[in-house]
Amino acid sequence: MTLNNMEYWVLAQVGLEIVLVLLLIFFLLRIRSMTKLLKNSREEERSAAGNLAKLTDQLALLDTKRVSLEETLVLLSEKTSTLREQSAARRFDASGPYNAISPKSGGTSLRLQVEDLHLQGLSLTEISRRLGLHPTEVKMALDLARLKAE
To answer: Which residues of the chain have pLDDT under 50?
Structure first.
């Protein structure tokens, strides 16, 4: 072998070592980026687990509120039915103050019924309750009756 051939072999070996060093650097950078990705994924898993815990707590809170609302709804429906029963009992109670003097029905006009009840001595509010009218309507019917009488 001559010296020239030996230089080529040394140059080739140095070139191969440079390529190996570059490959080593490339793979080290690659491993570094993979570890960063793993750290990020672990942090995301932790935050997801924390979010899951928060969501389960909120779900439990919502469930207790739902149960409470259902109980309130049951109580309200019971009170509503009780009030309806009381209202129905008052309407059909013949001895009640509203039905002591019943208005004439059977074709007579409301104006005549208002006049009749007024002649029996009932007040405007009692007449309006009895006939289901607004007190202003009762007053207007009585005013019309007075005007008609004049």
So the answer is: 94-104
Q: Which amino acid is at 124?
A: L
| DSSP assigned state of 98 | T
For the chain, the maximum distance between any two Cα atoms, rounded to a whole number of angstroms, is 150
Q: Which two tokens stand for residue 11?
A: 């140059």
- Which of 144, 141, 147 minimizes the C-alpha distance to 128? 141
pLDDT digit string (tens) for 92-116? 554 444 444 444 455 568 888 888 8
- Token duo for residue 48: 């997801």
- Hey, what are 93's tokens? 């109670």
Crossing angle of helices 124-131 and 110-119, rounded to 10°: 140
Spatial contact of 103 and 131, defined as CB atoms under 8 Å apart: yes
Nearest-angstrom CA–CA distance, 78 and 81: 5
Scanning the chain, the segments in alpha helix (DSSP H) are 3-92, 110-119, 124-131, 135-149
